[in-house]
């Protein structure tokens, strides 16, 4: 049995771990803080003597809160405005025959971008099962209780998520892979510029994930139709877009008619297709970034 005073003490001891769990599941420190605070409010309303294992009880509650928050995001096709924006290092993409020291210095970040795309594509229950088991060693039996499923079902969810995460494209892996990436990005740009939607669909993976960091939040979409629709809406506008290097790998930078940057896209390429796009289209963020100038005369 436990007292109300010891509940508070236990919560304080568990809080760093609970925050770490919620942060990994939600991808947002602010949302993680909200989830843990909600868990404390629920704990404070409980009969202290009714909880035998406070740490386990808190893990269950935080896990369920996180799943509810992820499902709410999915229903709105967005995540919180406070979600962390990835760091982009954007430079000219010069095909010199070898990687520059600058490319090598920022290449590791591109792996993080690929992981961001994959984690964003996981279902809420897959993401929770993967994070709790693979990152925090929570037994599948306990994960199943959180998700109201069997331990075996929880194991299957984590396994499915693990396969997706293990499929994250590796770093460039040499000049041949980078050249493949350039060709895919160039084909995407050409198809978008020419309004060739059949060609656009050929270069997009049907399940491509698109995350857009805006001034008000982050929208997350899956499937090539949303990207094709966005290209259709942009037809006839005086937007200049060309290939650049984003964190050492081929990406896209777009400018408006006045030369003001409109957006930068990190592109994740696998199997000759675009499988993920992470875009920053927040004007404030773009204004603070060091970006290449638009080509003279265009």
Automatic annotation (TrEMBL):
Keywords, in A-Z order: DNA-binding, Sigma factor, Transcription, Transcription regulation
Entry superkingdom: Bacteria
All residue ranges annotated as the RNA polymerase sigma-70 region domain in the record: 11-74
UniProt record, GO biological process: DNA-templated transcription initiation
GO MF term set: DNA binding; sigma factor activity
Residue span(s) of domain RNA polymerase sigma factor 70 region 4 type: 116-164
InterPro entries the record matches: ECF_Sigma-70_Domain, NTF2-like_dom_sf, RNA_pol_sigma-70_dom, RNA_pol_sigma70_r2, RNA_pol_sigma70_r4_t2, RNA_pol_sigma_r2, RNA_pol_sigma_r3/r4-like, WH-like_DNA-bd_sf
Family, as annotated: Belongs to the sigma-70 factor family. ECF subfamily.
Subunit structure, as described in the record: Interacts transiently with the RNA polymerase catalytic core formed by RpoA, RpoB, RpoC and RpoZ (2 alpha, 1 beta, 1 beta' and 1 omega subunit) to form the RNA polymerase holoenzyme that can initiate transcription.
Name of this chain's protein: Sigma-70 family RNA polymerase sigma factor
Native species: Mycolicibacterium porcinum
């Amino acid at each position: 049995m436990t007292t109300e005073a010891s509940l508070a003490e236990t919560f304080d001891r568990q809080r760093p771990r609970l925050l770490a769990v919620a942060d990994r599941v939600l991808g947002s420190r602010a949302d993680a803080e909200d989830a843990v605070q909600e868990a404390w409010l629920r704990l404070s309303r409980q009969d202290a003597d009714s909880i035998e294992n406070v740490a386990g009880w808190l893990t269950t509650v935080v896990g369920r809160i996180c799943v509810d928050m992820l499902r709410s995001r999915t229903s709105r096709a967005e995540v919180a405005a406070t979600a962390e924006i990835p760091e982009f290092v954007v430079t000219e993409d010069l095909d010199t025959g070898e990687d520059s020291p600058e490319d090598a210095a920022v290449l590791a970040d591109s792996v993080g971008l690929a992981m961001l795309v994959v984690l964003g594509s996981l279902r809420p229950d897959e993401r929770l099962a993967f994070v709790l088991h693979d990152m925090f060693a929570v037994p599948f039996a306990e994960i199943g209780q959180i998700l109201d499923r069997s331990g075996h079902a929880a194991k299957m969810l984590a396994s499915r998520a693990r396969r997706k995460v293990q499929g994250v494209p590796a770093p460039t892996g040499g000049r041949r892979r980078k050249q493949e990436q350039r060709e895919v990005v160039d084909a995407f740009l050409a198809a978008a510029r020419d309004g060739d939607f059949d060609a656009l669909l050929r270069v997009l993976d049907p399940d491509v994930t698109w995350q857009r960091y805006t001034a008000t939040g982050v929208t997350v979409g899956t499937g090539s139709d949303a990207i094709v629709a966005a290209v259709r809406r942009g037809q006839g506008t005086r937007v200049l877009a060309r290939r650049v290097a984003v964190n050492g790998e081929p990406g896209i930078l777009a400018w408006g008619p006045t030369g003001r940057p409109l957006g930068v896209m990190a592109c994740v390429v696998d199997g000759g297709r675009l499988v993920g796009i992470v875009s920053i289209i927040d004007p404030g963020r773009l204004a603070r970034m060091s970006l290449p100038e638009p080509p003279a005369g265009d």
